[in-house]
Amino acid sequence: MKIKKLLLIFLSALFLTSCVNQKQGKANNGSGLRIAATSMGTVYIMEKLNVDLVAVPDSQIDKMPERYKDVPKVGMAMSPDIEKLKQINPDYVFSPVSLISDLLPKYKAAGLDYGFLNLNNIDGMYKSIDDLGKLLNREKEAKELRDDYEKFINDYKEKHKNKKAPRVLILMGLPGSYVVATENSYVGSLAQLAGAENVYGGTDEQFITINTEDMLKKDPDIILRTAHALPDEVMEMFKKDFAENDIWKHFRAVKEGKVYDLSYKKFGMSAKLNYKEALDDLEKILYRGDENSEKK
């Protein structure tokens, strides 16, 4: 495969924003490219950029945009069907950078050209949108998205600039276990934008494994819970653990009823363009009393 260049774009914090493998002449005209998107977060971005797709992921939770309802499906985001992708023969396959270690070797082995978008946080998502605008000849659409984002965030921060920031513990659940989400994760970046202070800030990791005794010492004002996958199963796991594990009753946040379950559709692993709804949810939790608190 003849490669014109390998484009690596880094944020100042050295998070990978997008890694694009380009063939000769591919990026000249976005309207003529055959684009495959393997995650719903990527699909929603392509829709807003007015990009046609030749392949989309299967999704049991997120709704497929009407524009792509008849587009061939190539499996789940974490394990797209490589043979189907080869048959469809896209010019580019776009996936989240969180899956690069799993998917990059497969794309290379299959001879597929690829792009990995940083959907780990909102800043990364918009840097990737800027990059896509240039690559796919959609700079006007990308600028409109960024302008809208910057206005919303400026207005949102202005509302809360003089309010005391609550200290939060964020738990990301998986079936049978959970980890702590830092400000480098998507859900953590949302909480930070909303004005919250993460009790496990100051690390380069997105997620860390911490024992509950250490969490108790951090004395969070609020505990937020969300899911990596299988949200119904995970939330039931959280409910059972908080009811049966004696240590949770010692948390001030639990005693005060300040434990909140976040929507998987808005607070999953990858950044999405519904972040405004997510930040509105956090605004209610952080600044408007206990009406959404799980009753203990």
Give me a quick take on this structure.
Residues 1-23 form the signal peptide. The protein has helices at 40-48, 82-88, 100-110, 122-135, 139-160, 186-193, 212-218, 231-244, 252-255, 275-287, and strands spanning 5-10, 16-22, 35-37, 92-96, 114-117, 167-174, 177-181, 197-198, 207-208, 222-227, 259-261.
Total domain modules: 2
**Total number of beta strands:** 11
Give the integer mean of the pLDDT values. Answer: 86
At CATH level 3, the topology of the largest domain is Rossmann fold
**Low-confidence spans: pLDDT under 50, at least 5 residues?**
1-17, 290-296
Helix content: 25-40%
Strand content: 15-25%
The CATH superfamily of the largest domain turns out to be Nitrogenase molybdenum iron protein domain
Largest sheet: 6 strands, mixed
- CATH A-level architecture of the largest domain: 3-Layer(aba) Sandwich
CATH class of the largest domain: Alpha Beta
Roughly how many Å apart are the termini? 60 Å
Overall spatial form: globular
Radius of gyration: 20 Å
Number of helices: 10
SS-based class: alpha/beta
- SSE series: EEEHHEHEHHEEHEEHEHHEH
How would you describe the overall organization of this protein?
The protein is an alpha/beta fold. It folds into two domains: 5-153, Rossmann fold, CATH 3.40.50.1980; 163-287, 3-Layer(aba) Sandwich (Rossmann fold). Helix content is 37%, strand content 17%. The protein has helices at 40-48, 82-88, 100-110, 122-135, 139-160, 186-193, 212-218, 231-244, 252-255, 275-287; strands spanning 5-10, 16-22, 35-37, 92-96, 114-117, 167-174, 177-181, 197-198, 207-208, 222-227, 259-261. Strands 6, 7, 8, 9, 10 and 11 form a six-stranded mixed β-sheet that branches. Strands 1-2-5-4-3 form a five-stranded mixed β-sheet, with helices on both faces. The longest helix is centred in the middle third of the chain and has 22 residues, at 139-160. The model is unreliable at 1-17 and 290-296 (pLDDT under 50). Belongs to the bacterial solute-binding protein 8 family. This is High-affinity heme uptake system protein IsdE. Pfam families: Peripla_BP_2 (PF01497). Its cofactor is heme b.
